[in-house]
């Protein structure tokens, strides 16, 4: 490490961290910055699929954002990520169908990089920051953050200490537990009551043809259920290891790769717990572990046809003779009704039926439902600062802190934090 003292230390290298680093170096070229990440490469949405949405409110936590504020910063995000936008067709047809049954379809400007190409984008961004003089430290973990007399003190790997005038924490969704620990140590009030719980749907492209017109359709249903992260072309469902269990997610390769005629997307229900039950984090952990146990150490999958008949899926359900495609993520065939809370499953199933009215075919008997897909950004600081400053020298941004719900929103939240740093240094 070149120094033990920096003007700004940024924890994380995801989109929120990158947004902060680029804006700081744009505005304060002489500032000393250290970016530190326990991963070997920037992870999260930038690495996995890298789907970008450039229209409010998608990707933004609306309690912290207005349309005007989002639209002020999105061009800055676009300037750095240099997206190639997907074309959209026939939206009015789908929108009319949706409106008749109380569903909203958002018209969103979207770009998609693909899991096979996202590494090159990350390498370009990190190389540009290094060229601007930003110090980057990978595969090193910040284990403690403390306020000091004239800045903040950080501990790396439990031993090495560095100091910074300002710390921007952007560890992503996987870092929400770390954020919680820091907030508890520093006495920063936070809200731990929100979690997204749902399934990932996989079906044939012919059963969900809307993706030919609109790459990642954004449907919002009653009961706080929405579609999320649609993948088509060469699409696959993947596992993401989290603590002592796995969750499911979806990826797609770039258009350079041949397609597999499959589509997958998430249906997520936002849960807001009330007193005295408050912890969205603990609820998410419990649901993930329950599915892990029921699935014999893996997530669950069930065909729509079996679910409709009230019977569990079995290995035989997933052969080529009975149905038209094999799962891209062959986890445990079983009964989602044993693992998904009844109220959540009821609302998700109601949304699926509405979706099948809008896009007939998605509820083909061969369609697979995977569980669990859970998004954990449960620990939101009780912000009072418009720049997401939570203590004299500490800012918290990105999906893990609840300021965003996607790549572009996270990047924009990093810019807002950087604007606060610039202002605090008398340059704003």
Write the layout of secondary structure elements.
Blueprint: E1 5-11, H1 15-27, E2 33-37, E3 51-53, H2 67-81, H3 91-100, E4 104-106, E5 110-112, H4 118-131, E6 135-138, E7 142-148, E8 151-156, E9 160-169, H5 176-186, E10 190-192, E11 194-204, E12 218-221, E13 225-231, E14 235-242, E15 245-252, E16 262-272, H6 280-294, E17 300-303, H7 304-308, E18 332-333, H8 342-358, E19 368-375, E20 379-381, E21 389-391, E22 394-396, H9 407-424
Parallel strand pairs: 1-2, 1-9, 2-6, 9-22, 17-18
Antiparallel strand pairs: 3-5, 4-12, 7-8, 8-9, 10-20, 11-16, 11-19, 12-13, 13-16, 14-15, 17-19, 21-22
Give a verbal description of the structure.
By secondary structure, this protein is an alpha+beta fold. It is 28% helix and 29% strand. The protein contains nine helices and 22 strands. Strand 1 (5-11), helix 1 (15-27) and strand 2 form a beta-alpha-beta unit. It is globular, with a radius of gyration of 22 Å. The model has no long low-confidence stretch (mean pLDDT 92). It comes from Oryzomonas rubra. InterPro entries: FAD/NAD-bd_sf (IPR036188). This is Pyridine nucleotide-disulfide oxidoreductase.
